[in-house]
Amino acid sequence: MNEPAIIEIKDLTKKFKNAADASVKGISLSIRQHEIFGLLGPNGAGKTTTISILCGLFPPTGGTVLIDGKDLRKDISHIKEIVGIVPQDIALYPSLTAKENLDFYGHMYGLKGSYLKDKINLWLEKLGLSNAGDRRISGFSGGMKRRVNLIAGILHQPRILFLDEPTVGVDVQSRNIIIDYLKELNREGTTIIYTSHHLEEAENFCTRVSIIDHGKILTEGSPASLIADYPGSASLENVFLHLTNRKPRDQ
Amino acid sequence: MISKLLASIRKEYLLLVRDRIGLSILFIMPMVLIFVMTLIQDAAFKSLNEKGIPIVFVNNDRDTLGNMIEKGLRTNSLCTFYDSINGKPATSESARKAIADGKFLIGIIVPPDATAAIRKNVTALINKTLNVDSPENKNSITGPDSVEIEILIDPVTKKSFITSITSNLREFISEIKTKIMFETFSQQIAELIPDKYSSPKNAFAQTQIITYKEIYASKSETIIPNAVQHNVPAWTIFAMFFIAIPLCGSIMKEKSEGSAFRLHTMPGSYLLLTMGKLIVYILVCLVQFLLMLSVGLYFLPMLGLPTLVLGNSFLGIAILTLATAFAATGYGIMVGTLASTEQQGAIMGSLSILLLSALGGIWVPTYVMPEAMRSISSFSPLNWSLDGYYNLFLRGYGVKDILVDAAKLISFFIATMAIASLVNRAKRNV
Description:
The complex is a heterodimer.
Chain A: E1 5-14, E2 24-32, E3 36-40, H1 47-54, E4 62-67, E5 70-71, H2 76-82, E6 83-86, H3 98-108, H4 113-126, H5 142-154, E7 160-164, H6 172-187, E8 191-195, H7 199-205, E9 208-213, E10 216-221, H8 223-229, H9 236-244
Parallel strand pairs in A: 3-8, 3-9, 6-7, 7-8
Antiparallel strand pairs in A: 1-2, 1-4, 4-5, 9-10
Chain B: H1 2-17, H2 20-46, E1 53-59, H3 64-74, E2 79-82, E3 84-85, E4 88-89, H4 92-100, E5 106-110, H5 114-129, H6 135-140, E6 147-153, H7 159-192, H8 201-206, E7 210-216, H9 227-242, H10 244-256, H11 259-264, H12 269-302, H13 314-338, H14 342-359, H15 371-377, H16 381-394, H17 403-428
Parallel strand pairs in B: 1-2, 1-5, 6-7
Antiparallel strand pairs in B: 3-4, 5-6
Helix pairs in contact in B: 1-12, 2-9, 2-12, 3-7, 5-7, 9-12, 9-13, 9-16, 10-13, 10-14, 12-13, 13-14, 13-16, 13-17, 16-17
């Protein structure tokens, strides 16, 4: 793991207007190229806020973020060109077909012509949707929507891919398909930043994880090293519960 | 850039054609509205309370006829009397211009020496009747149309208003005419025939000494104001501005379905997305306009209503329609950006359009509004558009006469887009 850092975060803070408390409180992280980095934490820990800031959706309140050596505040247009995002909620037009959705998003990323068409067909086939390409999204199952949602974020082969709960609400089959192709994408050079509540999935998928809670990083390392660091923990889930306690957060 | 824009336009087009309820709001409902409102208002015009119609009066006679008409108009509850324009005494020229500019709905011009001419004609008639043979008498009768009172009418005036005023005026002038005739007649008879029982008064009563000529202050003589001329442009503008609701819905759906989130993370795509919406909805407005025109030109006549007359300037119509389409679309984008939920956008959009249309003279003509409301109505973009269409359709004006209204509408579009952009930026800077 001697790859150079592609994302450098220093003292990142975010306090929303009218909010009593900051959502992100001085996070510092260094994510290396070709990593599959897991950002894990309970509901309201600050995962989605952190990812949203890194995608340029809204500005941070404090701290610095360098992505591919560029300052997030100054070179947002360059950063937007090299990142892809697969949001937690399905971000597709229900009344358009899968191909129409992907064609639109592909064009928005600057792809066009037969290259885009081939890419769409290739990914639909890879994710088992080749027969559903001309059907409207509104008639898709949850798993099928998730897969199209994933393709929309990776069509342009981003150097950095943000995945916010990419497998939430899907069956085991769809989840396996998604994870397999994310691994393939990573092998081809894409750095993946991933959030999930599926800790078993994260343990198997991520090369390194960071557990955050209340806007702060609690621990960081490879899943294996974290399990080893916390005696009595047989899995990443045990480590997670040990650090974040067992009480539900969204009561 | 072009390829992104085309993709955005294609996406908007597909979303629109697959939304059947949205399509019905955009095309079918306004057409039905034009049918219903034209039929209702055509009947309603006839029973409107016709009070306070602004009338400008020019008394070039300065004698009995002119003075009595003036006195009568001043005390008539049907009209509001004016004998000056912009603080200066009204002249025939200034009155004609003021009517053509829409400052007054009706103007009455009594020609110089009208009373003297009546007296002269009556005297000559009496002399002729009584066979007083002199060369002066033979030449003095110039025919039945010797005194012509001009009644100037703004084409935007409802036909029923014109009928009320002119019939009232006819009746009133008829009384004056009879009075002058009898005064002159009595004097002449007293001088010529001591036996007053043989006077031929019935012959004078039947004589048409004063005639009327209604002149519409329009460059095109063929245009006649009617319910269709008023309602088709008015409800077309309303329909064009009503796209704010489906447009706002489209923006809100994009937010709620998560597409806006993804688009905000893409390079420069949100601007393109807005441009895509703008182009598609401007085209929708233009299609709406053509459909509404077809209703006025072909469908309303089938129901026994008059055919819409378009005036003389197709370029003027094109410029004004495009400017209205821009203003309506800009307004929709602004409402869609300001609203936080689809429901909020629908309420905000529909209520504000109803308010702006009421103020703009779509529901009730501005000239029957109180003075204060009339001043407020000039701030409604729907009023600018309606005024432009009145200039083109009713007054028969050309391109240069609608440029101010078109410029106001384009400025409104720029202002709404600027507000939308600022609000969008502020909302993202959470």
